[in-house]
Design brief:
Length: 186
């Protein structure tokens, strides 16, 4: 299956599963390509090809599954069993051998899995405030590539009270949000 075909199948499966459970806001189901897939795919410009991605709170698979379709090795961490079932079906139907689905809480996963800062990066979209993401990931020294909303300046200010970090901020190409790339988190 070609990449474009995988994205079309992903959209179909998302619509089917969304009738059973809340994976994305119902108002966004009419524009999955732009609102979710292209939004997630824009991270591809910033993430090195030679790393493994750990996607935090993967939900409906954004951005983790999109990045797996684009060729990265991705571990999707999702604590909600029903969402993990959806991700598992995506993995099977889209034949994504480079995608690993973990049904667990992030803090549990990170406490029992060695994460080497040179080989791993974190991604997240619509998951948690920046400070909460830092609380989970700061001990790993990994870089973070996060899709964030309009309130990113406030989130950065709050996080700076507890953490030191370098970052680059980029305007989203698909909406009014931002991409924040975080380095040297301490």
């Amino acid at each position: 299956m070609k990449i474009e075909e995988k994205f079309i199948e992903y959209e179909k499966l998302l619509k089917i599963w969304s009738t059973k459970m809340n994976l994305v806001a119902p108002s966004t189901l009419t524009d999955i390509q732009q609102r979710h897939i292209q939004d997630s795919a824009q991270l591809a410009k910033y993430i090195p090809k030679d790393v493994k991605i750990i996607d935090l709170g993967s939900g409906a698979g954004f951005p983790g599954v999109v990045l797996a379709i684009l060729g990265w090795d991705v571990i999707c961490i999702e604590s909600v069993g029903k969402k993990t079932n959806f991700l598992t079906e995506l993995k099977q139907k889209l034949d994504l051998k480079n995608l690993t689905i973990i049904n667990d809480r992030i803090e549990n996963f990170l406490s029992k899995t060695p994460v080497n800062a040179g080989n791993f990066v974190f991604t997240a979209r619509a998951f948690a405030p920046l400070i909460k993401i830092f609380d989970y990931t700061h001990k790993t020294n990994c870089r973070l590539f996060l899709l964030k909303g309009r309130e990113i300046d406030k989130e950065i200010s709050v996080a700076k009270a507890d953490y030191k970090f370098d970052y680059k901020l980029y305007k989203s190409e698909t909406g009014d949000g931002y991409i924040i790339c975080v380095y040297n988190l301490k």
